[in-house]
Design goal:
Helix 3 (157-165) packs antiparallel against helix 4 (170-192). By secondary structure, this protein is of the alpha+beta class. The radius of gyration is 20 Å and the shape is globular. The protein is 31% helix and 29% strand. The model is unreliable at 154-165 (pLDDT under 50). The protein folds into two domains: 5-152, no CATH class; 153-213, no CATH class.
């Protein structure tokens, strides 16, 4: 089967296991949940082949050295599990390993190819079995990953508190503080650029809509 279409699937890393000595992580990267793009990537639709050596990146940034490589990737009942080795050669990779151990980055995004001929909105039978799929616009039934990324933007005060409580390095804490400032500056600029009259109109229309219900 030749998979012709591409997609991304993001999942929060649940049931995470970190082996600090071996610098390896086992994580669930697909759990059949509806993702932010309103898609479900079925774990049992994973194409059977060897994925050992497939690279793991940070935020799909292929211009940087990979964060690690996959040792194995397999189906396990209603989820897909990955074990990967974290690289700690460069300073940036070492910082990423520190973030991973501390739980700062806790989501995975799969870049995958899929068969569009078997992808469709959930069937009535599927919705009966999985009512939580009601919001899904498409079910991906046959797929294979071509890349996995650790994703997330550690840019809030909760993340900073977590980093400090975990005893992370001064560099890690400094990096998070800088990202928080960048995020706050971006929000300020976006607020300044808002058309206040348009915002007031949107709020007014939303209130009217609620009152008419």
């Amino acid at each position: 089967m030749i998979y012709t279409d591409k997609g991304l699937y993001v999942v929060k890393a649940v049931d995470l296991t970190v082996d600090e000595g071996a610098q390896e992580i086992i994580a669930v990267i697909s759990n059949g949940a509806v993702d932010r793009d309103k898609e479900v990537v079925l774990p049992n639709g994973l194409n059977k082949r060897q994925y050992q050596g497939l690279k793991v990146y940070k935020n799909h940034d292929y211009t940087k050295d990979p964060s690690g490589s996959i040792k194995w990737l397999k189906k396990d009942e209603d989820k897909v599990i990955m074990k990967w080795k974290v690289f700690t050669i460069s300073d940036e990779q070492k910082l990423m390993w520190e973030f991973l151990k501390g739980g700062v980055y806790d989501q995975y995004s799969i870049g995958f190819m899929f068969n569009p001929e078997t992808a469709s909105p959930p069937t009535p039978q599927e919705l009966k079995k999985h009512p939580e799929w009601q919001s899904a616009r498409r079910i991906i039934r046959e797929w294979e990953p071509f890349e996995v990324s650790v994703v997330g933007i550690p840019a809030n005060n909760e993340t900073l508190t977590l980093a400090i409580s975990k005893g992370m390095s001064e560099l890690a804490i400094k990096t998070i503080k800088a990202q928080i400032k960048d995020t706050q500056d971006t929000i300020v600029e976006e607020v300044k650029a808002l058309d206040i009259n348009a915002v007031k109109k949107d709020i007014y229309e939303s209130i009217l809509k609620e009152l008419k219900r």
